Amino acid sequence: MLIIAHRGASGLAPENTLAAMEKALELGASAIELDVHRVEDQLVVIHDRWLQRHTDGHGLVHHSTLAALANLDAGQGQRVPTLWQVLECIDGRCDLNIELKGRNTNQPLIELLSQAQLQLGYQPQQFLISSFNHPKLMRLKQLQPDLKIGALTASCPLDYARFAEELGAYSVHIDVNFAEPEFIADAKRRGLKVFVYTVDEPEDMLELQRQGVDGVFSNLPDQARATLGSHTIAPGHVWS
């Protein structure tokens, strides 16, 4: 089973910061998940639309500037990194799940992933792009047919994982509160990988393992590794 560090090792360092990414690598997470918004012509790594929860700033992320973001404290003296800074930090040592937030992220993402392959040595298969915005994922897949996409949901749809199959998704990402056995089984029948978020309780991890899910997003990758033991998959090219 994959242990995907949720916003980095966010239970142990400020979420979506370089410190959280380094901590996830140190703890042997199979892969790292992070969130991006567009600011000016770049993608910045932050979860919320508003700055208040993550930083000592105020206002909407997309109304900010790169210069202003660089001066904010994202916790313990950490800064809000750009996606490029995170890619440099990780340096291809594990695969990434990039969740798209906000507006107009597709084109800068495509350009940045190409740049990462040329300049940093990443392989195309190291990236999995996810979003709750399914029309955005559909457009991205049309622009980059070979790119792996993951369809997020925070519900248990009537037709289970059909929406993800119709998008041509590689994976479906299910809220732990809606990870019903029937939903998981349907996704597997459709040939989809099943990843469940956000899973920090050992009992949940073991139950999801019994149900055959392919991975869990966890804020505590060290605890997840201790719980799942030899069943965990080491970092590397895990989006197979």
TrEMBL record:
Mind telling me which PROSITE patterns this protein's record contains?
GP_PDE
One molecular function GO term is: phosphoric diester hydrolase activity
| Gene Ontology biological-process annotations | lipid metabolic process
Q: Where is the GP-PDE domain?
A: 1-228
Q: Where does this protein come from, organism-wise?
A: Ferrimonas sediminum
Query: What InterPro entries does the annotation carry?
Result: GP_PDE_dom, PLC-like_Pdiesterase_TIM-brl
The protein in question is named: Glycerophosphoryl diester phosphodiesterase
